[in-house]
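Dear Dr. H.,

I hope your travels went smoothly. While you were away I took the liberty of generating a structure for the chain from your last submission, since the lab meeting agenda had it listed for discussion. I wanted you to have the full record in hand beforehand rather than looking at slides cold. The sequence, exactly as received, is reproduced here:
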Amino acid sequence: MSTNADRVFSNQHLEGDLKGHSVRSVGFTVTAQGLKLLFQLVSITVLARLLQPSDFGLVAMVTVFTGLAIVFMEGGLSMATIQRPHITHAQVSNLFWTNVALGLLLCLIYIAASPLVAWVYGEDSLIGIMCALSLFFLIGGLSVQHEAILKRQMNFRALAVIEVIANLFGVGVAIAMAWYGFGYWSLVGQQIVTIAVMSIMRWQAARWVPGWLSRGSGVRSLLGFGVNLTGANFVGYFATNITPFGIGLVGGAQPLGLYDRSFKLTSIPSKQLLPPVFNVFQSALARVAEDKPRLRSAIVSLAGKIALTTVFVTLVMVVTADWMVAVLLGDGWDEAVLMFQLLATFSVVTPITTFTAISLVAIGESKALLKWKVITFFILLVAIAIGSIWGVMGIVVAHAISGFFIRMPLFLVYSTRFLPITMADHLRALVPSLLIGLTTAALLYALRTVFEPQNPVLALLLFGAIGAGLYLVLSLSVRRTRVDIVELLGYVQTAWMRKRNSH
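The corresponding predicted structure, in token form, is as follows:
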């Protein structure tokens, strides 16, 4: 029997206009991420001038373990709440208390492990940093399910507002602390303040109060799904962070700081702009998971649009790497240019593989994703081991090359075993944008050989505009990408008209 509390988890309001909800959600999300990106760029630009590369390197050493712990804090249980067609108040309450317990456990483990991590890196200051950051898990565990409820309801407007306000507070605190000479503690303060504000606001927005633990709620299947997804995220996180870990061991804090800033900038499309949009896509795909033709059409269509929008950003970063480093990081970061270019080249891989992964999760194939993450981890481990022979840059090169030429193609082939799509579908969605991107990049490089502005800000604006024009013209000349552009413009028009009519 349904209760008032259970109605919080109902999806009936989405059944009539799922596409409309998705379009509006993407609109809110893109707007929020645009503002968040602005805050991030301000933060990177200002903090790079107030702090030393070694400050970023010290926090980056710890961040490797922080992100890993976050995987366990969530336990795959947020996606269990989102993905299931039907779920009850009692089940989510049990998941809530599981997340709280995991958060508390991780807080204690983090504190206990801090001396060992400090010893491994030979940096005593890491003990204090890890003890402070342990609060992240204690606070974050309290709102995992509240965030999941908002995603299940596709209330991405509320999530967008929360993201913007929390990050604004975090960036403000970081800059203020750096200005007053707190060094790397400003980066620690940023993370704690951001998660605290985020947790408070999620509770307010979800308007859900968990019940006590209960027996017989049928939560066991949800925990099983969560275990597989946690395993996948656990292995995937190791795969993602083995590169900075190897750089820290081989080169120390200085090159790791260079890598950290380069990675942060080049991963903006995949780590900053797209994840909230992917949250919308994942929620929408979960709602049509049982309708195979509709699911196939949605996956192919979305994959093409993701490639179209991210390839352009990638090629601009590759061509203008030296100017971007000069403008965003300032003096003393010239050594980061080559690393920046390599990571920018690789950055086209992450959006494609991430979307494929969320598609698998949306249809409940968390076990399949776990198996793939194990495979990709060992591929990357071998690549990094070989690359380390040539030092820090060898590791970065191995990371980029193995991703583009080995891990991405193999994952696309593997995914066809579980998703209702073929390899031909993948190629049809991705290849046109990749070829257009390569052509545009070649033309921009040719232009740089005959004309190169001395002012890096002017150069960025000019080549960005020229690149956008070339990319648009070439995209409109290809039928597949032309259709994607028309549909994207249609989504924007629809969202705009709905907004006008609502007023």
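Two observations you may find useful: The chain has one domain: 6-502. Residues 6-502 form one domain.

With kind regards,
E. W.
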